[in-house]
Task: inverse folding
């Protein structure tokens, strides 16, 4: 038992990577379609980004520069842990700067800085099926996708409007990809949805526990579901970042004292740092 | 001025140090050895090997030690190691009729070829805490006698005997059908064949299967089970290397096998006969093997035309939720940060509350003016 196991570049063996790449290629060929893949047990728990980690491991090369964010931040514990994992098992260069990264693995956010053609963004996905909470059975939802039978989703959105006057979904807001598949954007806030449309970067989605990979190829039409008389509305940001004064970025609310004092700051820490270095520190 | 919390990296390193300290406990107490765990925690080893899908008692012991006795964490450690192992090939299907039996009971026949063998069981112990066990080994008054154990026996399966009359359905064999799927290598799709279902159940969480099996006994998909046979012992495994072309023994594994006999009233196309529910797990684990057999039989309800929509008969429900490594990951991931989603929900909730108040105020205004109009009209 004394011999320590030796792991392959980026942990996964080459056979497994090949299997995952085949699933990725199929996913790219059918934008928005959930491709089953033989997800492996990873050395981090399900729910911690095993799908994203497998996708990243399968596409990572020695020249890549990796950025990992969770909630928009490079410094959240799980982002640190995943970045360390790849630094250790693949020895690749890592960065917190969005434009410098060739692969960005993310949980719950899309960076504020626009992505480019040289980049791949890998989303960690908990529940890949956008219809899951309307129909729990996989056998049923697969049939619904095959027949493009999205009636239940439209009924749900309509009921929202009837009851609240608007669509009451704040994150994981469903989109239609390339005018065919309804897709879950992963639990990103709907503020980020427009960034997916015609994005120059390749967007890959990995769901480890549910064993699905899906993709949006570069420059693909991605439309948030809505109605003609109730068009999709991006969340308006009220207030400004208390660090960089930005009014355009998605803001996290922080509780500053026990008197209910609140402050807002950018969820995208790299964006915020860059903004601050341009304008200098606020007093 | 509030400054963003930094230092996730340092926090993780510190957490690992604290974990190592707590795992060790009081340094004045001797540290557990892998040998001790393997030899004295055998049923925990069995569970970790069964649900970890890897027969390796030493690694299971290491996992239990590393996991501080948290068996699901130990199972996870073993699974994460298993997934990195290369596959040489498939062993020759093991024949449990050749088992060297150490324990074997049947609830359907009083006596049978090979006999009933009680073996090492808790079944007839009185659950009274034993103060002798609190005394260190070398000070204990009566040493354990090692000579009561009889030689292991080999005996045919009991259902084999009923089988001659056609009273019991013939065993189904995935090997005959050429089924060689493996849910750890290909994603599970529904409907799944029985072989894949059994693989999922064999890896499935003991507690989950226990509760589901129990639910069938309480009327949620009743299967009228009898414990036809439960046997525990060692079975030899062998492998045929392509370059040799003959069987080479690999060693033996301890397994627990359970065959339930269940009533079946017959259908239009099938005569009434007993049906089988099957359970088979690594190590000594009767609870798991019996639960598995109950759930296996319940999952056949569709094929036998008896489905009534209860949880234990629902293949998608059972197979999608029986894996404790998946389940614990997804339940526990709720403790990861969800600031962004929560922020989005917070904004939405504030909007919904504002809308609600506005509507209420508007309604109160409307009600008041309607009332005033009414009163005016009455005057
Ligand atoms: Zn900012």
Result:
């Amino acid at each position: 038992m004394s011999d320590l196991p030796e792991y392959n570049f980026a942990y996964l063996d080459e056979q497994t990577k090949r299997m995952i790449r085949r699933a990725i290629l199929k996913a790219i060929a059918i934008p928005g379609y959930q491709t089953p893949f033989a997800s492996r047990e990873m050395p981090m728990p399900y729910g911690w980004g095993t799908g994203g980690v497998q996708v990243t491991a399968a596409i990572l090369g020695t020249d890549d520069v990796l950025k990992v964010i969770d909630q928009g931040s490079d410094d959240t514990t799980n982002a640190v842990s995943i970045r360390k994992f790849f630094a250790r098992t693949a020895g690749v260069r890592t960065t917190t700067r969005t434009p410098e990264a060739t692969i960005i693995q993310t949980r719950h956010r899309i960076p504020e800085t626009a992505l480019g053609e040289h980049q791949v963004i890998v989303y960690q996905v908990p529940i890949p099926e956008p219809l899951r909470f309307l129909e729990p059975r996989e056998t049923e939802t697969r049939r619904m996708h095959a027949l493009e039978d999205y009636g239940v989703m439209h009924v749900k959105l309509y009921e929202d409007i009837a009851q609240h006057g608007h669509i009451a979904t704040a994150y994981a807001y469903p989109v239609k990809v390339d005018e065919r598949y309804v897709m879950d954007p992963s639990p990103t806030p709907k503020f980020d949805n427009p960034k997916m449309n015609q994005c120059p970067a390749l967007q890959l989605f990995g769901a480890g526990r549910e064993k699905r990979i899906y993709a949006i190829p570069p420059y693909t039409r991605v439309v948030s579901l809505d109605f003609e008389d109730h068009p999709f509305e991006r969340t308006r940001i009220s207030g400004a970042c208390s660090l960089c004064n930005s009014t355009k970025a998605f803001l996290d609310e922080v509780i500053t004292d026990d008197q209910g004092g609140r402050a807002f700051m950018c969820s995208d820490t790299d964006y915020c740092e860059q903004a601050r270095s341009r304008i200098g520190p606020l007093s | 001025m509030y400054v963003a919390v930094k230092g996730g990296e340092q926090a993780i390193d510190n957490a690992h140090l604290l974990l190592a300290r707590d795992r060790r406990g009081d340094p004045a107490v001797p540290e557990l050895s892998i040998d001790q765990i393997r030899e004295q925690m055998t049923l925990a080893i069995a569970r970790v090997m069964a649900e970890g899908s890897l027969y390796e008692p030493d690694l299971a012991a290491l996992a239990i030690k590393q996991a501080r006795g948290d068996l699901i964490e130990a199972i996870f450690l073993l699974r994460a190691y298993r997934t990195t192992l290369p596959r040489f090939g498939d062993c020759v299907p093991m024949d449990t009729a050749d088992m060297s039996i150490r324990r074997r009971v049947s609830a359907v026949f009083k006596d049978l070829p090979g006999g009933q063998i009680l073996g090492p069981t808790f079944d007839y112990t009185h659950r009274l805490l034993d103060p002798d066990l609190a005394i260190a080994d070398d000070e204990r008054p009566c040493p354990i006698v090692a000579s009561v154990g009889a030689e292991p026996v080999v005996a045919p399966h009991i259902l084999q005997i009923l089988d001659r009359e056609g009273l019991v359905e013939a065993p189904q064999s995935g090997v005959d059908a050429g089924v060689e799927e493996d849910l750890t290598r290909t994603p599970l799709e529904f409907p799944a064949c029985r072989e894949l279902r059994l693989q999922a159940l064999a890896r499935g969480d003991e507690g989950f299967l226990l509760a589901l099996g129990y639910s069938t006994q309480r009327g949620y998909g009743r299967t009228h089970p009898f414990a036809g046979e439960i046997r525990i012992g060692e079975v030899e495994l062998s492998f045929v290397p392509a370059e040799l072309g003959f069987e080479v023994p690999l060693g033996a594994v301890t397994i627990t096998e359970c065959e339930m006999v269940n009533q079946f009233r017959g259908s239009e196309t099938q005569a009434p006969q007993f049906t089988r529910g099957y359970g088979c797990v690594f190590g000594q684990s009767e609870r798991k093997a019996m639960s598995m057999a109950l759930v296996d039989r319940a999952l056949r309800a569709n094929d036998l035309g008896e489905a009534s929509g209860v949880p234990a008969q629902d293949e998608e429900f059972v197979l999608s939720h029986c894996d404790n490594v998946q389940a614990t990951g997804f339940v526990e991931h709720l403790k990861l940060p969800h600031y962004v989603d929560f922020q989005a929900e917070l904004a939405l909730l504030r909007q919904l509350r504002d809308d609600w108040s506005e509507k209420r105020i508007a309604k109160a205004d409307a009600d008041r003016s309607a009332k005033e109009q009414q009163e005016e009209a009455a005057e």
User: Anything to note?
Assistant: Strands of chain B lie at 100-105, 225-239, 248-262, 275-282. The radius of gyration of chain B is 29 Å.
